[in-house]
Design brief:
alpha/beta; four-stranded mixed beta sheet; 12 helices; globular
Length: 432
């Protein structure tokens, strides 16, 4: 297996231009494809996930082109009617492609097979399928019930209300909100139970509005989509920097940057539509010095030089919360991350994986069904070989352990290609 040995990092300082947001990139690509007109998508993320979406759209007959070597793409929308009505799509482990495409294709009047890597076939999708079947979609499981791969056939769309559970993945609700306008009917989506990751739904609603779709929200329990709406291109749309990716550099600054030479990320700031910018608030609670501009955030360590432990609910930012578990290694006391059960159905079982790898570094870890409690050791264990489970976020967040004055080995570092192929280059550039 490939690995990357990181030398101890004594200090970090400098600025990082963030890659585009994965969540915004794949939502924007699908909405541009469903729209009438031509859309210029600027600053699209270069990653495995976006590549899977681009390949799928091409297979569905949607024309797009990349403008030179830039990350700007022109997409010619199909007006809600995919030209290709019978195709098999392989979507890797891209949940931001698989879930919304499942919803859109279930209402598209065609015959489609959707599959992915082995881990994607272990990630639940039953709640989304159940909701789509309520609307008349015809979807079959080709393996285990409740999980991909899926076979979609033309259905008879009817009714005016669907219900979906909200406690497994917000991508199910996102898929419904993006797909149901294609029916031309009034639809209400009812959320059963607690809706997790609400900021990701706010991203979806913001982008729907940009593409001409109005959704009326009744708290977080019901969403009404008026009928007779059509997706319309905004002409041009810019993809913000990825706020989840910002977490690694902001945490690095909070651990190892001086106030007169902080770590700054550009591409997200006060104007961001991404909920993960609130990660900076968690660092502030730990004592870090945070400053913000419209499109930048900077972080440096506390005046005391030491972070403090926190006990916090991270249901709203589960992806970025993983980085807090690493920051806990540099905090005084025991840090508790609560309401993070959704970690268990991500690219891997992140709760179990994080607990296992944190212990390799000498931490005392208590793993619950929906929480993680981390007590740092007096000194980190050197030369820990961190397994990454083909999970980009595990690879990136554990790289920060090198700030503890110990060498760290990251196994399979190439898994960062899912969202941030140049991550280790950027970390090295700001490190000394």
């Amino acid at each position: 297996m490939e690995f990357l040995d990181l030398s101890p990092i004594s200090r970090v300082a400098g600025s990082v231009d963030l890659p585009g947001s994965k969540s915004i990139s794949n939502r924007t690509l699908l909405l541009a494809a469903l729209s009438r007109g031509e859309t210029l998508v600027k600053g699209l993320l270069a990653s495995d996930d976006t590549q899977r979406m681009l390949e799928a759209l091409a297979a569905l007959g949607v024309k797009w082109e990349q403008l030179g070597d830039s990350r700007d793409f022109r997409v010619w929308g199909c007006g809600g009617d995919f030209p290709v009505k019978d195709v098999d799509l392989f979507l890797g482990n891209a949940g931001t492609a698989f879930r919304p495409l499942t919803a859109a294709l279930a209402l598209a009047g065609g015959t489609y097979k959707l599959s992915g890597v082995a881990r994607m076939h272990e990630r639940p999708i039953g709640d989304l399928v159940d909701a789509l079947r309520q609307a008349g979609a015809q979807i079959e499981y080709l393996g285990n019930d409740g999980y991909p791969p899926l076979q979609i056939r033309p259905g008879t769309i009817g009714g005016d209300r669907v219900a979906v559970k909200g406690n497994v993945s917000s991508q199910f609700l996102t898929g419904l909100l993006m797909a149901l306008p294609l029916t031309g009917r009034d639809f209400t989506v009812e959320v059963i139970g607690e809706l997790i990751s609400k900021p990701y739904i706010e991203i979806t609603l913001n982008l729907l509005q940009r593409f001409g779709i109005k959704v009326e929200r009744n708290g977080w329990n019901a969403f009404f989509i008026p009928g007779l709406q059509t997706y319309t291109s905004p002409g041009e749309i810019f993809v913000e920097g990825d706020a989840s990716s910002a977490s690694y550099f902001l945490a690095a600054g909070a651990i190892g940057a001086n106030a007169d030479a902080p770590v700054t990320v550009t591409g997200v700031g006060r104007q961001s539509i991404q909920g993960d910018v609130r990660f900076a608030e968690a660092l502030e609670a730990m004592g870090a010095v945070i400053e913000r501009g419209d499109d930048w955030i900077s972080a440096s360590r506390p005046a005391s030089g030491k972070l403090k432990a926190i006990d916090m609910d991270f249901n709203h930012i589960p992806d970025a919360a993983m980085t807090i578990a690493i920051a806990a290694l540099f905090a005084e006391g025991t840090t508790t991350l609560r309401n993070i059960e959704s970690w268990r159905v991500k690219e891997t079982d992140r709760l179990a994986a994080m607990a296992t790898e944190l212990r390799k570094l000498g931490a005392t870890v208590e793993e619950g069904q929906d929480y993680l409690r981390v007590t740092p050791p007096a000194e980190l264990t050197p030369n820990a070989a961190i397994a990454t489970y083909d999970d980009h976020r595990i690879a990136m967040c554990f790289s920060l352990a090198a700030l503890g004055g110990v060498p760290v080995r990251i196994l399979d570092p190439g898994c960062t290609a899912k969202t941030f192929p140049t991550y280790f280059d950027e970390l090295g550039r700001i490190s000394s």
